[in-house]
Amino acid sequence: MAFKVGRCLLLQHLTNSELTQQELADRVGMTKQQVNNYAHNRGVMTLENAINIASVLGCPVEKLYELEVVSVDALKKGRSSRRE
């Protein structure tokens, strides 16, 4: 079993926490634009940023993105097609 990372759920977490994008950005040491890009799926967080954001939001890191369960073969296929 493997996982494929899907849509970012940061916007929902921000709404639930009643934090603004600027407040989150200030707490984790990044720009509001970077947080906005993550929240609107225009970029994928580094593991370090995901850990810091999850810590501020009080949620597990894996809850920041939708995760799709896929077979290992499907995951390998997806990687090989990106290299071509």
Question: Outline of this structure?
Answer:
The chain has five helices and two strands, in the order βααααβα. By secondary structure, it is an alpha+beta fold.
Explain what you see:
By secondary structure, this protein is of the alpha+beta class. It has one domain (2-77): Orthogonal Bundle (434 Repressor (Amino-terminal Domain)), CATH 1.10.260.40. It is built from five helices and two strands. It has helices at 10-17, 21-28, 32-39, 47-57, 72-83; strands spanning 2-8, 65-70. It has a two-stranded antiparallel ribbon with strand order 1-2. The protein is elongated, with a radius of gyration of 14 Å. The relative contact order is 0.24. The model has no long low-confidence stretch (mean pLDDT 91).
Please count the beta strands (DSSP E, at least 2 residues each): 2
The Rg value, from CA coordinates, equals 14 Å
> Considering the protein shown, what is the CATH homologous superfamily?
lambda repressor-like DNA-binding domains
Largest sheet: 2 strands, antiparallel
- Alpha-carbon distance between the two ends: 24 Å
Q: Note the total helix count.
A: 5
As for the number of domains, it is 1
**CATH topology name:** 434 Repressor (Amino-terminal Domain)
Low-confidence stretches: none
Structural class: alpha+beta
Annotated CATH architecture: Orthogonal Bundle
Let me know the average pLDDT. 91
What is the element string, with H for helices and E for strands? Answer: EHHHHEH
**Beta-strand level of the residues, as a percent range?**
15-25%
Assembly type: single chain
Shape: elongated
Helical content band: 55-70%
Strand order of the largest sheet: 1-2
Please identify the top-level CATH class.
Mainly Alpha
